[in-house]
């Protein structure tokens, strides 16, 4: 039998969760409805609905070019993160060496520390070497948290593969390269898909590092959304909300797809194990 204090605590927790979820859904609903509304004053719903704000936002904010730049940067970050992160995750999952816990902690730091804390020194270095303000500068900045994220995410998938499979492949003459390409990669396809899709979502939604290192021709969608809200001039709120809806959909779709391949508890369990 649970005590009255436990029942009260459980009720308070559920009340807080419901309050939080309702507020988030209300804010999202307001943005979505306003992006389709003509005029919305002193009423529960807009006077009429239209899709012209999406066309207006597409033209005014040059969303075609912004989306192209966004996915060029995200694609490069995802590819480089996979090429660096998967072999690094394999080394950490299969090899024991002095200082391995320290290495794992170093990989965890960019995920635990707020990006703004290392983003300003990182941007300073990129400006000194001439990369800041370019697309490659944004890519390098986003690799700092994305590569460790890929490594930590891939380790549980690699640990699930029986080492005897690798030993059998070596018995039949497979070298390291063939073993990795023809044996491990096919077995790791779900993990690689999950890591790359989540890295894509993380890059598209990364504001701080991109804001600090982007130039006029290397702004991603989230940075362009910020400038559309706070830049000088008068803009229709519905156009900005339409741009926000496009941003939400561009991240939500990839996130839903990624969650079909990975269980978030795998990441939490691995982080707890590494910390221990």
From TrEMBL:
Membrane topology: Multi-pass membrane protein
Keywords attached to this entry: Cell inner membrane, Cell membrane, Membrane, Transmembrane, Transmembrane helix, Transport
Alphabetical list of Pfam families matching this protein: BPD_transp_1 (PF00528)
Domain of life according to the entry: Bacteria
Chain ranges of the ABC transmembrane type-1 domain: 67-258
InterPro entries found in the cross-reference section: MetI-like (IPR000515), MetI-like_sf (IPR035906)
A Gene Ontology BP annotation from the UniProt entry: transmembrane transport
Recorded GO CC terms: plasma membrane
Family membership noted in the UniProt record: Belongs to the binding-protein-dependent transport system permease family.
Designated name of the protein: Spermidine/putrescine ABC transporter permease
Organism of derivation: Ancylobacter dichloromethanicus
């Amino acid at each position: 039998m649970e005590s009255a204090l436990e029942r009260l605590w459980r009720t308070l927790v559920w009340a807080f969760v419901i309050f939080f979820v309702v507020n988030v859904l209300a804010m999202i609903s307001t943005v979505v409805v306003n992006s389709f509304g003509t005029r919305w004053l002193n009423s529960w719903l807009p006077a009429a609905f239209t899709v012209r704000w999406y066309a207006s936002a597409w033209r005014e904010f040059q969303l075609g070019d912004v989306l192209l730049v966004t996915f060029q940067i995200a694609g490069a970050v995802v590819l480089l993160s996979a090429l660096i992160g998967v072999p690094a995750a394999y080394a950490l999952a299969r090899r024991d060496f002095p200082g391995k816990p320290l290495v794992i902690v170093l990989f965890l730091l960019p995920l635990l520390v707020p990006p703004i804390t290392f983003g300003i020194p990182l941007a300073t270095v990129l400006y000194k070497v001439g990369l800041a303000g370019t697309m490659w500068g944004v890519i390098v900045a986003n690799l700092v948290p994305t590569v460790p994220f890929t490594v930590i995410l891939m380790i549980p998938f690699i640990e699930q593969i029986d080492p005897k499979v690798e030993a059998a492949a070596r018995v039949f003459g497979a070298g390291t390269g063939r073993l990795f390409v023809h044996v491990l990669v096919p077995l790791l396809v779900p993990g690689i898909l999950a890591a790359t899709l989540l890295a894509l979502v993380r890059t598209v939604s990364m504001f701080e590092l991109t804001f600090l290192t982007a130039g006029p021709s290397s702004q991603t969608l989230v940075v362009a959304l910020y400038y559309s809200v706070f830049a000088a001039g008068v803009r229709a709120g519905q156009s900005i909300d339409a741009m926000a809806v496009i941003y939400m959909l561009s991240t939500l779709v990839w996130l839903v797809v990624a969650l079909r391949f990975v269980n978030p508890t795998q990441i939490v369990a691995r982080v707890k194990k590494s910390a221990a």
